[in-house]
Design a protein that fits this description.
The chain is an alpha/beta fold and 221 residues long. 46% of the residues lie in helices and 19% in strands. It contains seven helices and seven strands, in the order βαααααββββαββα. The longest helix is centred in the last third of the chain and has 21 residues. The relative contact order is 0.16.
Amino acid sequence: MSVLDIPLRKALQLFYAPHSLRRSILKEDIRLDRRKEAGGTRSRGGDFYLPFWSDVKKHISGDGDLTQLTDDRVKSNRNFKRLYPLLKDGVLELLSAKLRWSNEIIEIVPTSVHGSLRVEDLGGTIRIRDALHARVRGEYTRVVYPYFSEEPALPEEGGRLGLWVMQQALTELDTDDMRIIDALRRTFFSTRTTPLQGNEEAVFLENYRFLIDEWARLKHE
């Protein structure tokens, strides 16, 4: 039941994906669910982006160079050859030109940020896993959640919806510290750059309800 227990980044991708792409992703998820129900495994072999995000943390904390780390990943797995260098370039530009961390002392908090938003009316859960948690110069913190999808780009509304979910799921953290980055487009969203408009809950629930309905229809086809 992937859409009923779904990572935030995937929910945002499906909200804004073209119909054909959304349908393709949902059908593949349904196929994997049925394979698991038949006694098999649902795994596709792990999170494609997890090694890259781990390397980003090493780079930010000074424990490695993202360019070299990415080169090593590509050499170890040809499946990373196309997207990892593009993600690397996007993250490096964000860090140096927009998030302004390039010359600042940064400490990565050992425990990544996790949380979830339970949508009782729809029986679904939106998960946030492995958000980067950093202290900068010992003066302020940042909580950064990545959006990696090649298609579609994360629109301004999607950034606001993602920030709203982060605020609901990570209630112990300061909302001003939260960021969502779209690495491939080299953009980021925060409450200062993308102020919430007050309708984010209604828009999110409308999109989520539509997604669940489409998933249910495909299951019965």
